[in-house]
Amino acid sequence: MQERLLRVSDKTIIVGVDVAKKEHWARVTDHRGVDICKPIKVRNDEESFERLLARVEKIRTERGCNQVMIGLEPSGHYWKAFGWHLNLHQSNPVLVGVNPYHTKQAKELDDNSQTKSDKKDALTIAHLVRDGRYFDVYLPEGSYAELRILCNERKRLQKQVNRANNTIVALVDEYFPEYDEVWEKVTGQTSRKVLRTLPFPSDILATGEKNLTNTLSIYSSGTEGKVRASRLVEAAGRSVGVTEGKRVARLRLRNLLDELELFEREVEAIEVAMENIMDEMEMGELLQTMKGVGPVIAAVFLGEVGDVSRFNNWKQVRKLAGLNLVEQSSGQHKGKTKVSKRGRPYLRWMLFLAGQVGSLHNPEMRGYYRCLRERKQNPLTGYQAFVAVGLKVMRILFHMAKNRVPYDPTKALGAVREQQIAALA
Fold first, then answer.
1. What are the CA-CA distances from residue 373 to residues 277, 366, 384, 395, 421 (Å)?
2. Class (C level, CATH) for 146-272
3. Which fold is adopted by the domain 2-139?
4. Which of 17, 78, 225, 341 lies at a C-alpha separation of 20 to 30 Å from 411?
5. Cα–Cα distances in angstroms (integers) from residue 117 to residues 19, 28, 32, 301, in the given order
6. Coil vs helix vs strand at 259
7. Pairing between strand 12-18 and 23-29?
8. Using an 8 Å Cβ cutoff, are 43 and 68 in contact?
9. E strand or H helix at 25
10. Do 163 and 47 contact (CB within 8 A), yes or no?
11. What are the phi and psi torsion angles at 318 (to 5°)?
């Protein structure tokens, strides 16, 4: 906080911008937060961008200032065209971001009013920058930009996969609620083929156990057969599922299965693109020297974090992921410590996944997980241990990327942790 405050001096011009789709509003203030000129309307085009920057540059020159700081809320996508224009502009303004939540909470400080307007928000943003309540905006370039886009697309498609899965399960629960007693994973590969041809109890009973056994054997390439068929027939015989509207429900189920498989193919295509970029990047190959870190985990780490050279400490990456610890305590009451979850959710998901995979496939992380679960003082639950292992993986990946060194299993845990693990053994 203090470092950010010191960057704002009496030689600084501050511009707060409230970004919208077609028209932005800008407020130009001095280092004390006093308006220098009237609010400026900025259209979302190059001519208007240049006009604003020319006016700000004129004010800077007239006042003998040496720095221009432009603050905005980097949420959504409307800000990106303006942000990139500023990033590449010859006047080289300092682009910073403010948290939209901070803007919402601070806008009543000046006039004690809930009134909201674009002009007012722009001034609030400028005041937050003045007070040091901002962060540097990072715009990834090159392979990092491509990985960021692929991460966002994979996240979007994975949501569609989950949505299709849940909708299929809901439909099956309606017409054949006993089905999940036979197949724990309703959308497994063999189960999908059954749902395409024999989705309802009446279909199962009409087919008969003998024919169903042969069908399952074909669908599963010989891994399923009589036992599963017998269970299906038994479940169908006592089913209480809905019997009306089956003709249309059958059509809907097939459409949902097609949709699910389409999204899964698209996720695979995204992951192939990630692997290709990882093959091109020296950093990608370096991170994958750690067992349990494959191309997808490495790609999401680099796509979400970006160039690690911009960080001084691994704790900054932890905060970026929203995994920094927070505590609610007051007086004699000491609250429970938990992670803040104020950060990049996809990076947080990736680190949790890295904790799970590392606990299975990396000997050092497996030992660390066991130590966290079985230690006498403050043993962690399985979920907590995966988060802790994921944080350990993150620290190691950060060290590898920052120093450009491959994974060294002898340095992964440290002497004290290794002694604790050995004691458990």
1. 37, 11, 9, 20, 11
2. mainly alpha
3. Nucleotidyltransferase; domain 5 (3.30.420)
4. 341
5. 12, 16, 22, 38
6. helix
7. antiparallel
8. no
9. strand 23-29
10. no
11. -60, -40
Pair of tokens at residue 66:
């040496």
237 burial via Cβ count (<10 Å: 0-12, 13-18, 19+): exposed
> Tokens 């006039």 — which residue?
111
pLDDT of 329 strictly over 70: no
Q: For the segment 42-94, what is each residue's pLDDT rounded down to a tens digit?
A: 999 999 999 999 999 999 999 999 999 999 999 889 999 999 999 999 999 99
Its pTM stands at 0.88
Q: Which two tokens stand for residue 335?
A: 């609250």
- Encoding tokens for residue 268? 């695979």
Please identify which residue in the block is written with the tokens 């990882």.
278
> What confidence tens digit (pLDDT) does each residue in 189-235 have?
999 999 999 999 999 999 999 999 999 999 999 988 899 999 999 99
User: If you search the block for the tokens 């974090």, which residue do you land on?
Assistant: 305
Q: How far apart are CA 277 and CA 261, in angstroms?
A: 25
What is the total residue count of the chain?
425
